[in-house]
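Reproducibility note. Readers wishing to regenerate the assembly model reported in the main text can use the exact inputs given here. Chain order matters: entities are listed in the order in which they were concatenated for prediction.
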Amino acid sequence: MRTTTPFRAAVIGLLALTLAGCGISIPSDPDGTLDEARDGVLRAGVSPHGEFVVVEPGASAPTGSDLSGSEVEAIEAFADSIGAEVEWTVSSEEALVRGLEAGDLDLVAAGLTDATPWIDKAGVTRPYAETTSPDGSPQKLVMLVPIGENAFLTELETFLTEYGRAQSGEAAR
Amino acid sequence: MTRETVRFGHTELPERQVEVLHRAIRLEWITIAFLAVTVTLVFLVLGNSQAMKAAWIEDLLSFIPPIAFLVAVRINRRLPTKRHPYGYHRSVGVGHLVAAVALGTMGTYLIVDSASGLIAAEHPTIGTVELFGTSVWLGWLMIGVMAVIALPPVFIGRAKLKLARELHNKVLYADADMNKADWMTAVGSIVGVTGIGLGLWWLDSTAALFIAGSILWDGLRNLRAAVTDLMDARATTFDDKKPHPVAAQVDEYLRGLPWVAEAGCRVRDEGHVFHIEAFVVPVDGETPSLDTLEEAREACIDIDWKVQDIVLVLTRELPEVVESGAPAETKNSPAA
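Running the prediction on these inputs yields the following structure tokens for the assembly.
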């Protein structure tokens, strides 16, 4: 089909322009989440869940010092890796997911698994660790990011994979 | 090595066509094997890209024409019976229609699906996979897979196109034509995924729309061709570009006979072979002998292997629907 040649030419031209304009970085974020968090503020939302996210009882407006748990630690380590300070939000899962959609949050953790129903509302990371649920079945842990922010997602997944490996290495020792 | 006789109904295929048929069957099996690999590979890296989804569905649909072809050439071999006096040739047309409807439906679905994604400004999310201990962005794998599978179908398609002409098989032609255009799907999805990589989320849905449009276009074009044949339109060449020359050859032969004043035939395309009704006006209205008629019929069948069932009809004047026959005269042609 000859008609496609102008189409392809247009696409190639457009790609070239874009590459020239913003420097080559693939994947990148349509809304610039990673760029804004790096050396800045990582806006993390958490919801208390088991040993993953624990909130100090009685803390009315919880800050970092009131939080503990494996995922809280993981997020802090991730923020360190990109030179960011964490700004915590503690709320219900639904409110946090809405925060992701509205662009008010960069990341959500709440002991979520790869069976999470939020799949249409948020980007779901690759499982980064495996635990055992209370009923004894294996669970794969994931976190949520804003939809389509692929550079941020890639950075987080790459970090979590390394982090998870290091953690299980420590546990084995 | 002795070849068994291959028939399409009553028609024994000439040696050349038997060889072409065997090659076509082999190529279609190769196509199916290739598609099985392609569909699996693309499925493994599918992710959330709409363009990849469109490309994958197109690959899935690409199974239909080769399967339709293989089934049709098998059914075709059956002899005509009392229950099926015209034989089983139309199985080709039925296969063609089924493939066309499937293409049209999926094309429409994908257009709606991609357009709604574009309108809702859905940003496709593509993360990483772990490959040999490192995290790799899945988009790279998508681009790699599509680049690898882009070209082989083009060559397979070209090879099939030649065979389709010799076999006069429109399913094979449709299939070859689709294969030939397959690289555009691959390029389209590469463009879409690259778009996602660059943060241009809309490029993915746009590429998917382009792929879906090509699927729909294939469907509509084939639907027209299939329906035309099933409606007994005048037989055309395998690519539907012009009237098939066999009709003119039969006309010419009959008109050349000493006892024929006028002759004209109507030809139905049964898939591979033609059913022909040849109307003949004898000189001085004199009925020729059975032997004369039989001789003329045999000679017509010898013109081309595709002339299978031919019926000679003696008549006082030619019906309006056939090319009128008196040489150098145009008395019967409707309004010039």
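We highlight two features of this model. Chain B is about 60% helix and 10% strand. Residues 232-336 of chain B form a domain with the Alpha-Beta Plaits fold (CATH 3.30.70.1350).
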